[in-house]
Design brief:
By secondary structure, the protein is an alpha+beta fold. The chain has a single domain, classed as Nucleoside Triphosphate Pyrophosphohydrolase (Alpha-Beta Complex), CATH 3.90.79. It is built from 3 helices and 7 strands; from the N terminus they run E-E-E-E-H-E-E-E-H-H. The strands form 2 sheets. Strands 4-1-6-5 form a 4-stranded mixed beta sheet. It has a 3-stranded antiparallel beta sheet with strand order 3-2-7, with no helix packed on it. A hairpin with a 4-residue loop joins strand 5 and strand 6. The longest helix has 13 residues.
Length: 136
């Protein structure tokens, strides 16, 4: 039986009220090194998805965020595991998005969101995000 990995991802935007850009990072390690994703990570036992997301962003980016609405839940079968990823809007409340694990980062707009090579699971979110960015 293939294992399920339960994770959360932050779609960090410039403003929850007026979304024009989102923040993405390029993996700095492992099988998917150099591929782009939304920052986040695994939910630890006893954590809510929102608490896990705040902790992960603090650890990975030395930044405090406020977690907004759930955008979508993505399920994706990678060769060695099944990914269950809850994706939330988020906004920076303090800190400077300092890269602790990623090799690169970019702020992307609806026009530039397709300019990076996304991980397959993250790619599933792009159309929803583009619509949110374009509606503003």
């Amino acid at each position: 039986m293939i294992r399920t990995v339960n994770v959360v991802a932050a779609i960090i935007c410039d403003s929850m009220d007026n979304k024009t850009r989102i923040f993405s990072t390029a993996r700095g390690y492992g099988e998917f090194e150099g591929k782009w994703e939304f920052p986040g990570g695994k939910i630890e036992e006893g954590e809510t998805p929102q608490d896990a997301l705040k902790r992960e962003i603090r650890e990975e980016l030395a930044t405090e965020i406020v977690v907004g609405d759930l955008i979508d839940t993505i399920e994706y079968d990678y060769p060695t595991f099944h990914l269950f990823m809850q994706c939330f809007w988020a906004e920076v409340v303090s800190g400077h998005l300092e890269l602790k694990e990623a090799e690169d980062a970019r702020w992307l707009t609806a026009e530039t969101i397709d300019s990076v090579e996304w991980l397959p699971a993250d790619r599933a979110l792009l159309e929803k995000i583009k619509k949110s960015l374009m509606c503003k």
